[in-house]
Amino acid sequence: MKSRKISKDLYVDWHSVAPGIWRIRDIFVNIYLVHNTADNTWVLIDAGLPGSAKKIKKVASELFWPAAQPSAILLTHAHFDHTGSLRKLADEWDVPVYAHIMEKPYLTGASAYPPPDPFAGGGLMSLISFSYPKGPIDISDRFVALPADGSVPYLPGWKYVHTPGHAPGHVSFFRQSDRVLIAGDAFVTTDQESALSVMLQKRKLQGPPKYFTYNWGSAERSVKLLAALEPSIAVTGHGKPMEGEEMRQSLHDLADHFADEAVPSSGRYTEEPALVNLEGVQYVPPFDNRKLILPAAAIAAAVALGIFLITKSRRRHQYFS
């Protein structure tokens, strides 16, 4: 991992993860720039947190100048940490935004996502998830549905796989020539529920972030689909890249033991998923108030500590990572 100073006042944590693919770490989420060698163009996959537009544009200028504008922005899904700078970048670049048709309600102002479950994961990132934006945003003028045939616009040789569970229209991108997988949040490579793990970026392949996953049955099927691809390299929405036989074995282990390794024992969506369709969320299972077993003071302390850790990570990231 390298931090590079690409302007007088901007350090950005970015590096190559596979031929023609670069990863930007944006505090606790990843952004990817993918080169199309056929015509020397590129696309952006996901748009990070609010305020990340400057760093994305700086990296793009260094990599692709004078073609520093992408052909399009592609989304794995539309959760807040993947779309924070979406409107700003799409408007400044004047480019389309491609996402799965099932993400349309959350990108056109029609529906918010199912509410996060702060008691699903047990870590600080889960506990403060009630405060995370859950949408919707409205980029109706930019939204374009991904082709139904699985092809990826502007990226010949790639396909997308519909991998719902974490989000209704979640997709993962796969380059067949060298089996590189951009998994999004279908699975991740760090313990995303733990603020400490998020800060340290310790590698651990595990299921999707628990606090936003609304359908665990779909999430399990999605992991099985991705494991069957036998990827050589897996890069995800959270955590560092993983590759090789050890990664593939970990992914198969997750697919084979998903209920034990990924599904929370008592989350809001553990027994019953939220129901969604092309119009958005139609039903959310009721929250069981009996699960509020933590005293209010402990919750407040956890929230305060989580906010402190994230703020500290943001400041550190600006200069060192």
- Domain unit count: 1
CATH topology: Metallo-beta-lactamase, Chain A
Helical fraction: 25-40%
Uncertain residue ranges: 5-10, 316-321
C-alpha geometry: globular
Please compute the radius of gyration using only Cα atoms.
19 Å
According to CATH, the homologous superfamily is Ribonuclease Z/Hydroxyacylglutathione hydrolase-like
CATH architecture: 4-Layer Sandwich
Q: Give the spatial strand order of the biggest sheet.
A: 1-2-3-4-5-6-7-8
What structural class do helix, strand and pairing data support? alpha/beta
Mean pLDDT value: 88
Number of helices: 10
**Which percent band covers the strand fraction?**
15-25%
Task: Compute the number of strand runs.
Answer: 15
Outline the biggest β-sheet. 8 strands, mixed
